[in-house]
Amino acid sequence: MTSSEKPLESSFTETLRQLSIETEDQPNEEDNDLSTSLSPIPTTDEPLHLLVLPTEILLVIVGFLDPKFVIGKLSLVCKRFHKLVSQDAIWKMRIKKTYTGQYPVIAVDDGNFDWGQACYQIEKDCSLWSNYKENMDFYSLNCGHIASVDSVCLLQNGDICVSGSRDRTMNVWDLRKLSKTTKAESASVKSIQAHKGWVWSMTSFDNILCSASWDCWLNFWDIEADFKKVGQLRGNSAFLCPVLQKDVVMSGSYDKQIYMYDRRTDALISKLRHHKKPVLCLSADEHYIVSGSEDNTIGVYDRRANRLLKKIKMEAFPMSMSYSNGQLWAGLRNGEINVLDPTYGKFDIVQNYNIGHKGKITGINNNTGCIITAATDKTLKVK
Description:
This protein is α+β, with helices and mostly antiparallel strands. The chain is built from nine helices and 23 strands. A four-stranded antiparallel β-sheet has the order 1-2-3-4, with no helix packed on it. A hairpin with a 3-residue loop joins strand 6 (208-213) and strand 7 (217-222). The longest helix has 16 residues, at 115-130.
């Protein structure tokens, strides 16, 4: 058990002692411990207020308050409240009551992890998805394409949706125009003849949208200029999974390679080939390029050392990836999920989940609150 996990296992009283929170009327904060503040409410003729309550009572009250209010409002009231809600142990205890299983899946350094924000995200997602039929509105954008939709990209904080289809077009939707009294057509902004092949995948960075197609082209569209086409790059084979960064665009391809281009000059930087079959999914940060292939492997390329760091054999080939928050989640063809630990470049498989999908997992997204997966069995699941 790591040191960051110990507060979760402690009793309530012991956790209070670990917090070492002192009342504001203590003369020396450095020398006093929590036992001093765990005292009866003093007898006084003055009206009672929150600050005279013992710490353990305040913690019970805080436990009923919305985390966003506690972090954004209550912590600013006074020094005592700020110190009270700044302790990681408070949020760890609260997360344990809400989240079943180990959280996070991969151990974190408390100094680099915001437990309060994590608690807020978990409770927000649990509240939202536990009764999604009441908390969400459902709309079907079924009027924009005449063939299957293989990719969807949300832009501008989810206000704009772009769909890419096998009919070779992209449709732009303004989701703010949707309501229970309007039809889907009202949200359609424009249709773009984007490619001469299937529009297979899309990604965005800042104001640029990148579309990848079976016609062997990467096309670039300026979101703020009404999706005007502002560039294109041609490869030797179909582009299947683009990743757009500030100065670099890269994509896995059907010809088993990963292409990397300089966005400023459109020059080909390199072609990486460490797979024996098409590259189906791709993720990257400033240190690593992680690729999933139909050859049942995940490849990890070290960008600083300019070499293949590791190749991981999977039970089934990965079809989707989510690489963020110090975790790599891979959705597999057999409907299962593998979690890899990228700490110090290890990329070891640490967990395997079967969450009930009966088809290929074609989409996966992880945040601090939940994991969302989409599969060819026509279901979307939230863990």
